Amino acid sequence: MKKKNSEIEKLIKKILVDLEDFTKTDEFYKEDMKDMSFRIQWKICGYDFYQIFEKDRYEHKFGGILPDPDFSLTIRNEESAIKFLKGELLGGRYASRKDYNGRFKFVERLGWATIKTEDGEKKRPVEKYFMTAKFDPEKKYHPLTLTKIPTFRLYRQSKSSPRPERVGNAAYIPINKFVGEHENTIIPLKVFEHFLSKASVIVMEDICGCRHYRECENHDVSIGCMHIGQDMLKRDLQDLEPGMPEDVPGRLATKEEAIERVRLAYENGLMPLLGKGGMEGQGGPNTGKLMSMCFCCPCCCVNGIVTRNATSALKLFNRMEGLHVEVDRDVCVGCGECVEVCAFMGMDMIDGKAEVNQRRCLGCGKCEIACPNDAISIYFDDPSRVDDFINTLDSVVDVS
């Protein structure tokens, strides 16, 4: 019989105890657990233990076995187990499926490899499975659901660590807004036209990977992302979305084509998103010469999937500075249309009235359009905010 690794035992016991104070004080934990609870059975390299997470209760037992747990999590490789328990495998990578049918698999990225294909050489990530999660197939959990479990939270190791919010320069731009001196310019067009007019390289995807993969029936699948900047000359244009099961190719486009793409996206009711991109997803360095432009739908958007399923501590994007979203409770009739259209869980129903969840709302504007009673208003506190947003992106991204 193989001898158990004592380092793994020490790390497990440390985590179990460390989370006792964490679950009592962490604001994100309380929000994540306000309407749910989790019973977790672990099996790591021969060690059994369990954790029970509730809003006002945390229970654990090293060596314990739970009957009918919500999740059964297994790690068999000692090296991977130690990395995970030390917080080194918390990148949230998982094997993506349309239907998980009671099982998730989490992967560790080992690096990148260049492979030869009929279309030439391509870079592909080299990964291995390190953890399996099993659950009742009747419960439609997503792998990101597990990020609500504090054991998966990177900053559990240090109370002085900053919150794990990815505060970057990307933001959704409110649709159907007119601002200040640009009163005849829709904000998405104003912002996008600024960067497209400067771009030396424009690459357009004629398939939205998210909508294609999820077989979207509500929006145009052909309105894909755009990418601008010199770094696009280093990209494999045969597959711009390496995380998708099928290749998502791109092509060089003119400024006129790109601006028309933005107009079509707006008319199709899609949510415009733009921000600084990077080459990390292709195994290359981040040089600050790439900007990505996406046109998201609430039904298929990967960012919406993250928001609906992951911990509230995981914040991928920001609302534009100075953008306010408010509900007039005297006008709201509690129909819930705004809750239905929000992809980011940014609207709640409280006492029969809609209320903006200011922590989650990204200001995309879908709720304002959907409201049949004009009870929702979206506005900037200063017309110059749009120019400030442009200047901020200009300072960190060079697309010329």
Write the layout of secondary structure elements.
Elements: H1 6-25, H2 27-32, E1 38-44, E2 47-54, E3 57-62, E4 71-75, H3 78-85, E5 103-117, E6 120-134, E7 171-172, E8 178-179, E9 182-186, H4 187-198, E10 202-205, H5 209-213, E11 226-228, E12 250-252, H6 255-267, E13 271-276, E14 291-296, H7 302-309, E15 323-327, H8 337-341, E16 347-350, E17 353-356, H9 366-370, E18 376-380, H10 385-396
Parallel strand pairs: 1-4
Antiparallel strand pairs: 1-2, 2-3, 4-6, 5-6, 7-13, 8-9, 10-11, 10-12, 11-14, 13-14, 15-18, 16-17
Helix pairs in contact: 1-3, 4-6
Q: What's the overall average pLDDT, rounded? A: 82
Count of DSSP E strands?
18
Structural class comes to alpha+beta
| Span of the ends, CA to CA | 63 Å
Tell me the overall shape: globular
Query: What's the helix count?
Result: 10
CATH class of the largest domain: Alpha Beta
Strand content: 25-35%
CATH third-tier fold name of the largest domain: Nonspecific Lipid-transfer Protein, Chain A
Main sheet summary: 6 strands, mixed
Subunit organisation of the chains: single chain
Residue runs with pLDDT of under 50 for 5 or more positions: 154-168
Helix content percent band: 10-25%
Protein architecture, described:
- The chain has 400 residues and is α+β, with helices and mostly antiparallel strands.
- The chain folds into three domains: 6-157, Nonspecific Lipid-transfer Protein, Chain A (2-Layer Sandwich), CATH 3.30.1050; 171-318, no CATH class; 323-380, Alpha-Beta Plaits (2-Layer Sandwich).
- The protein has ten helices and 18 strands.
- It has helices spanning 6-25, 27-32, 78-85, 187-198, 209-213, 255-267, 302-309, 337-341, 366-370, 385-396, and strands at residues 38-44, 47-54, 57-62, 71-75, 103-117, 120-134, 171-172, 178-179, 182-186, 202-205, 226-228, 250-252, 271-276, 291-296, 323-327, 347-350, 353-356, 376-380.
- A six-stranded mixed β-sheet has the order 3-2-1-4-6-5. A six-stranded antiparallel β-sheet has the order 7-13-14-11-10-12, covered by helices on one side. Strands 8-9 form a two-stranded antiparallel sheet.
- Strand 5 (103-117) and strand 6 form a beta hairpin.
- Helix 1 runs parallel beside helix 3 and helix 4 (187-198) packs antiparallel against helix 6.
- The longest helix has 20 residues, at 6-25.
- It is globular, with a radius of gyration of 23 Å.
- Residues 154-168 have low confidence and may be disordered.
